Predict the structure.
Amino acid sequence: MSSPTPRRDTDGTGSDLGVSMPPTNMGLLAAAGVCLLVPVVALMWVSSYSKETPRLGGIPFFFWYQFLWVFITSALTYTAHRLVLAARGQRDDDGHDHGHDDEDAPPNEPVGDGDTLNPQPGFRS
């Protein structure tokens, strides 16, 4: 016996599938993508930093410039992470969406589809 084919979600809310999803801010997702793209472009443009001067404490520019990008990249990755979380909608510290009816459920009970393996009830990544 085959299961019925799920209906296509036409409006992007997930309501046709029995799942309510908060609206996603595409502008914030685009900003997160730019944050992740900047270090890739900067480090692949080797001719911009393939030189010895200026030296920093005797270390050639080629080396300290790349090392500096380790810290810049981690900051941009964290920023992108926060932007993606903001784009998905506001959540409190317990992982619950603000403005949804999931607050009625007991704190240790699964919310929505009854996912008992989910470590944070109500949180969807």
